[in-house]
TrEMBL record:
Domain of life of the native organism: Bacteria
Record organism: Auraticoccus monumenti
Listed name of the protein: DUF2089 domain-containing protein
Upper lineage: Bacteria, Bacillati, Actinomycetota, Actinomycetes, Propionibacteriales
Domain DUF2089: 19-50, 52-97
One Pfam family cited in the UniProt record for this chain: Zn_ribbon_DUF2089
Family annotation (InterPro entries): DUF2089, DUF2089_Zn_ribbon
Length: 132
């Protein structure tokens, strides 16, 4: 690899998904080749995963690596199973893949136990239980 190519990869940053001035969604309008300098301009479709936060990407990676095992996501997040399901549901919603019919049932006793043990905050418990 050329010195220029190595430099490009070393300084690569994650592209923002929203405008820092007005918070509108940004459009991908230019692509460039670090090898030969070719540039292509237009309006290109964004990757739906590129707008996810680093935490969401890590959670999704754990889910995929564990072949869909939410118990592994639970361990990774350090939360109860209902909380892991709820957070994964929110991740699916951010990807446009969630549906109201598949919203996970929340075990009230488990949520209260999670608050008592300090695994979740009272505000998060209230949200899980539909109060906020």
């Amino acid at each position: 690899m050329s010195e220029e190519g190595r430099h490009t990869h070393a300084t690569a940053h994650r592209a923002p998904s929203t405008c820092p001035v007005c918070d509108s969604s940004l459009q991908l309008t230019r692509l460039g080749c670090p090898g030969c300098g070719t540039e292509i301009a237009g309006i290109f479709e964004q990757c739906r995963f590129c707008a996810l936060s680093s935490d969401d990407l890590e959670t999704l990676t754990v889910f995929l690596a564990s072949r869909g095992n939410l118990r592994e996501v639970e361990k990774h997040l350090g939360v109860s199973y209902p909380t892991a399901r709820q957070r994964f549901g929110q991740l699916l919603d951010r990807l446009g893949l969630g549906t109201e019919q598949t919203a996970p049932a929340v075990d009230r006793d488990q949520v209260l136990a999670d608050v008592a043990s300090g695994q979740i905050t009272p505000a998060e418990a209230q949200r899980l239980l539909g109060g906020g």
